Amino acid sequence: MKTLFKGGRLLLLVAGALLVGGCGSPPVIRSGQALSYQGLQKTGERGMGITPNAAHHGQYVQVLVKPIQITSAVARDTSPEVSLEVDRALQQRLEAELSRHFMLSPRANGSNTLVVRVRVMRIAEAWPVINALATPLLGPVKNGGLSIEVEALDARTGRQEALLLLADDAGFFDILDSYQRAAHAKALAQEFATEAATFLAPLGHARR
User: How many structural domains is the chain composed of?
Assistant: First the structure.
């Protein structure tokens, strides 16, 4: 009985530390690979961005979404299965959302093509075992998170048209996804892709 009591106390201490450490939104992370970060401003509740120049609105007919780039540091600290799920979720959702505003292109050609690069700067995996043990007492305590950088460039000139940095962690009440390592990061990937497409939409030529 004493062993169980001590084990319960230890779990509470670990869970409490995780809860305190997880409070607040994570900061956005710069890759250092974007053409420029000058002019970054707060964008929405969980990001910073350089908004598309109004003079270039409606200029692009086509868009090429480059393969998602997961940085070496992220790949080193994340299981391959989780990295792959996040990669697929970002690529598929971003292309689907951008196709509402642009024609998808398999290559960067012509002066009316926008190239979009996505860099994954952080993937935080949920801890299913810890969450399962802590849920009866405190609820899930170690949820997943994601940070990305989205850069849009003119295919012909290489000029930067927009930049968006997004970062967030799953909330305390995202309980249903707390028992799968990739679920929170994957859900955030889909949300971020939709947010990025909306951010870049003004650059697209109105489709008929």
Answer: 1
